[in-house]
Write a structure and sequence with these properties.
This protein is of the alpha+beta class. It is built from ten helices and six strands; from the N terminus they run ββααβααβααααααββ. Helix content is 43%, strand content 8%. The strands form two sheets. Strands 2-1-3-4 form a four-stranded antiparallel beta sheet. The chain has a two-stranded antiparallel ribbon with strand order 5-6. The two termini are 25 Å apart. The active site is at residue 48. Residues 1-27 are annotated as: Disordered. Residues 16-27 have a biased composition (Basic and acidic residues).
């Protein structure tokens, strides 16, 4: 559900572990409005990384709600009493309707059940100020590149990057690049083209030849669970090292025991997904390495070993005030550091207490 709902909804769980009573049977003094309790100045309006990390934490403690225990309540009762149901319906009616279609529950009468979900990876392709990648002529726009948001995804980032880069930057920088290009076309018999084409064909044929026991969806879910448990909203060195080993084992199993179906002579979405998951297995190892090397907490990179007494992210600007740009080398990656210089506004410790 949209995070805008936290403008009026109150997030809570039962104080007691394993309390399976319906929400209307749990009195106020037995509820833990944990964001309001921990962050009195901001309450339910803390940034998404803080809210998500705390929601997962209370569920890990055994205080989650619903059948799975992997949810917290988002309650609109107080807002409806204060502003009226019609005002809430006008503001969030479409979201309440979506929720009811999915869950068959009326959020005007009982709290929503919500839980954090992975939908974004920090960073992206390295680009220069013209939005060109390290490959001449290849540009990366929007959330696919790293340039705008640093360690914490800002609200409405997709819209902001689309407008800024799509309307104002790229039309000029691409035009300037094309103006310098020769008019001659690159033929498909060029050695570089042939080499790239053969590499792709070999990769596809290797995947198609796999006739093991497990589907690509199974490998995809296993990889996702490893990252969720060890390289998600909260991580530590021991968990990251364990994830690295588990991903390597999973990658080996993928290339030996994947059950591939279909051919390359027709639309084959299973093949498309297998190629993607093979890439994910490479990318996920880089994510773990990147999280392991950065011995600090910054934005959504929260290392449990590096936090304040209040449980907030503790940066190390002296040693880690740089962009970590990793260059792919086929096997492994090389780190390039781009120092961040702050002339006017200096970084400070954030606090939502």
């Amino acid at each position: 559900m949209s995070e805008s709902l936290r403008n009026d909804g109150r997030v809570w769980v039962p104080k007691k572990m394993g309390d399976k009573r319906p929400p209307h049977e749990i009195p106020e003094d037995e509820r833990d409005y944990f964001l309001e309790r921990k962050y009195p100045a901001f309450g339910n309006l803390v940034p998404r990384d803080v809210a998500s990390r705390n929601a997962k934490q209370v569920c890990d403690e055994g205080r989650g709600v619903g059948v799975t225990g992997l949810a917290v309540y988002l309650d609109f009762k107080e807002a409806i009493e204060r502003r009226g149901e019609e005002a809430i319906r006008t503001k969030y009616g479409n979201l309440f309707q979506i929720y009811e279609k999915i869950t068959d529950e009326n959020a005007y009468l009982e709290p929503m059940k919500i839980y954090p979900a992975v939908h974004y990876t920090m960073g992206g392709l390295w680009v220069d100020y013209n939005l060109m990648t390290t490959i001449p002529g290849l540009y990366s726009l929007g959330e696919a590149n790293f340039s705008e948001h640093g360690a914490n995804r800002l609200g409405a980032s997709a819209l902001m990057q689309t407008l800024a880069e799509g309307y104002f930057v790229v039309p000029r920088t691409i035009a300037a690049y094309l103006a310098t290009m020769p008019y001659d076309k690159v033929p498909t018999d060029h050695p570089a083209f042939k080499e790239a084409e053969q590499d792709v064909k070999k990769r596809i044929n290797r995947i198609l030849a796999l006739k093991g026991d497990k589907t690509v969806d199974e490998y995809h879910k296993e990889l996702g669970l490893i990252l969720w448990n060890h390289c998600g909203m909260s991580r530590n060195a021991a968990g990251l090292k364990q994830a690295k080993e588990e991903i390597k084992k999973l990658q080996g199993a993928f290339w030996e025991n994947l059950n591939m179906v279909g051919t390359n002579d027709e639309l084959n979405q299973t093949l498309e997904k297998a190629i993607r998951v093979a890439d994910f297995l490479e990318m996920s190892q880089l994510m773990v390495d990147d999280a392991l090397h950065r011995n600090e907490s910054c934005g959504c990179h929260f290392r449990e070993e590096y936090q304040t007494k209040e449980g907030e992210a503790q940066r190390d600007d002296e040693n880690f005030a740089y962009v970590a740009a990793w260059e792919y080398k086929g096997k492994g990656a090389v780190l390039h550091k781009e120092n961040l210089v702050f002339d006017e506004l200096k970084p400070t410790q954030r606090s939502y207490k």
